[in-house]
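FAQ: What does the model actually see?

It sees only this:
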Amino acid sequence: MAAANRVKDSYTQGKVVEGTIGSADVWNNEVDRIHWFHENYGTSVEEMESASSAMISKAYDVPFLAIRILSNNKTNEGAYNRKQLQRTKNMFTKLCKSILLR
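And it is asked to produce this:
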């Protein structure tokens, strides 16, 4: 998390937040269910990809950091933004360099 905090101020195309990612092997597409997870588990976002990686990392006692980039979401009906891909790549590159060069 320290590496992410070192580079977060350099990202100006959105905001970088620290939070809890709700991840599982199911897709939650119901706004009331998404809100329930937020209220009961403190989730900031939901997705389906990080859960399996986190489980393997835990099994082998390897540190794990999930990074999610949101260009749209169900709760605010945000529109998909294709330009976010390049912005994300740039931020992710900075984060990797921060981790490797610490």
